[in-house]
Amino acid sequence: MLSLTPHGSRVNPGGDVPKRQPALHDLVLCVHAPTVIIGDRAGQLGGAGGTGVLHGDTRVLSKAELTLAGSDLEPMLAVADGASRVRFVLLARGLGDPTPDPTVRVERRRHAEADGVSEDVVIVSTATVPVRTSVRLRVAADLAPMVAVKSGEDGDPMTFTLVENGLRWGDGVRVVTLTGAGASVDPAGELGGAAGLPPGGRAVLRWRLRVIDRTALFTAPSTPVEWSRPVVTADDPRLAALVDQSLDDLAALRLSSAGDTFLAAGAPWFLTLFGRDSLWAARMLLPLGTELAASTLRVLAARQGKIVDDERAEAPGKILHEVRRAESVQPITGDRKSVV
User: Fold this and answer.
1) Average pLDDT of the segment spanning 231-235
2) Could you read off the pLDDT of 101-116 as tens digits, one per residue?
3) Which terminus of the chain has fewer Cβ atoms in its 10 Å neighbourhood, N or C?
4) Cβ atoms < 10 Å from Cβ of 250
């Protein structure tokens, strides 16, 4: 057997696989700053590296896998409806009529929100017979800092406590609650329910995730967007659609500090204040209004460098590069309660 090592590559004598940043090209994102949901093409969280729910600089949910008893869920379609909503269409093979063509489908209608996630699980039957199945949502959480998730690392699993129709976990700084209307709950990390559909019927189950972050650096604005919305007329109708989608995407990146709004640099890894990116975005939106540029300048001026600090690359008058929670730049085994 011939073994070749490419020039410039490093071999780890211990055999450990190095951690790598998760690839996002085959994943589906929903964004409503400061929340980002990253799932695979079936809407599952936890089946691929980097999936989960990020809120601020923390992965508040690392796994949410949906199963139906007696069925394999086969992904067919993932359709975005703006930046904050996506619909996953799955076929429930094994349920319904015993024919080659599937007669039961599942739609996961997911919505990213400023304080968490809402998802409707819609089961639709075209079968000629009644359909009964149990539905399970298996979850896990580690409260891993975003920087660790970006590096392909995991944190220590959280312990859940029971609440009405759901589970709760936290670290003294964040409190996360997952509920499902009428769901049975397993403290090991599972919400369950039953669905009974008559011929041609449908059933809807819902789960919701809510995050309370007492020391959030930035929050979602409570005010309307700071720019006007132009009416685009063009021979090519795609141009108007492109402008509309671009403005919707920008609205999903809005964050607030002390009442002043700015645009985060991007999702998922850079959903925070960046001096360069936030300034450029505000500058390019000036034709649609000046309010965002003014508020972005106020946010940055409040954090302008005051002293010479070589370790932090701070200097008097210098505009910051990015803002992170202190805990997000500590090793994952460090004190996850520090927030300064």
Assistant:
1) 93
2) 999 999 999 999 999 9
3) N
4) 19
Give the Cα-Cα-Cα angle 203, 200, 66 (nearest 5 degrees): 35
What is the average pLDDT value for the chain, to the nearest integer?
89
Predicted pLDDT of residue 151: 87
Residue by residue, DSSP assigns 36-95 as: EEEE-TTS-BSSSTT-EEEETTEEEE-EEEEEETT-EEEEEEEEESSSSEEEEEEEEETS
Contact yes or no for 265/324 (Cβ under 8 A): no
Residues in the chain: 340
Q: 334: pLDDT confidence band, cut at 50, 70 and 90?
A: very low
The two structure tokens encoding residue 256: 């607030």
What 3-state class would DSSP assign to 120? Answer: strand
Yes or no: say if 88 and 174 are a contact pair by the CB < 8 Å rule. no
Who has greater pLDDT, 18 or 289? 289
Task: Count CB-CB contacts under 10 A for residue 232.
Answer: 12
Q: For residues 245 and 28, give the distance between their C-alpha atoms in angstroms, rounded to a whole number.
A: 16
CA count, 13 A, side-chain hemisphere, 270 = 12
Instruction: Give 189: exposed, middle or buried? Use CB within 10 Å, 0-12, 13-18, 19+.
Output: buried
State which amino acid sits at residue 78: A
Closest alpha carbon to 118 in 207, 42, 184, 213: 207
Q: Long-range contacts of range 328-334, CB-CB < 8 Å, 24 or more positions apart?
A: 328/57, 328/58, 328/145, 328/146, 328/147, 328/148, 329/145, 329/147, 330/145, 332/144, 332/145, 332/148, 332/153, 332/154, 332/155
Tell me the C-alpha distance between 177 and 179, whole Å. Answer: 7
- Count Cα atoms within 13 angstroms, Cβ side, for 91: 11
Is the whole model's pTM more than 0.85, yes or no?
yes
Nearest to 195 by CA among 184, 182, 204: 204
Rg (CA), the chain: 23
- The position carrying tokens 């850079």 is 270
Sheet holding 35-39, edge to edge: 28-32, 35-39, 52-55, 58-61, 144-145
CA 135 to chain CA centroid, nearest Å: 23
